[in-house]
Every structure is written in structure tokens, then in C-alpha cells.
Amino acid sequence: MTTFEYEQDDKPRSMREAGVRQRRQTMLYQPHIAPLTAYAAKLRERGSVEVPEFDPFDGGIHAQVFLIRKARSNDS
Q: What gap in Å lies between CA 56 and CA 61, rounded to an integer?
């Protein structure tokens, strides 16, 4: 990915574009994000919760802070 593509793909609301989503999908196996991608896949195998993909533009395993939050349910 070129610097220009990276800058375009990291703009607000860029995920509305199918091409951006597809490029990020292919980045999920880069070394900094692959362990998190595998972890999310294991959680999905359980089938009890919906687990989104991690954003490969974020720090991945090199992040200083890592937060996982449960989404609010519609029951509340």
C-alpha cells in the first residue's frame, strides 16, 4: 500500500467504501495484527457473541493500551 492509499484509507468515514474495507481485510494477516485476528476467530467459533475484526491501522500487538469492550445489548 502506498502512502497515498494509506492516507486515503485512514480518513473519517472511509470505511463506507468497499475498496477500503477490502484492503483492510487483506491487512488482517500482517504480523502486528495477525495474533489478534486469530484470537477474534477463536471467539467467533464459540458462537455466543458477535466479534468484529480489529483495525489493522491500529497498533495491534504493539499497542500500549488495549481495550476490549462489550457492546451494549438491546435488552437494557
A: 10
Between CA 73 and CA 28 the distance in angstroms is 27
pTM attached to this predicted model: 0.71
- Alpha carbon dihedral 59, 60, 61, 62, in 10-degree steps, equals -10
- Give the tens place of pLDDT for each residue, 24-74: 899 999 999 999 999 999 989 998 778 889 888 888 999 888 777 776 666
Which is nearest to 23 in space by CA: 11, 40, 4, 5? 5
61: Cα separation from own chain's centroid: 12
Q: Name the H helices within 16-74.
A: 18-26, 34-46
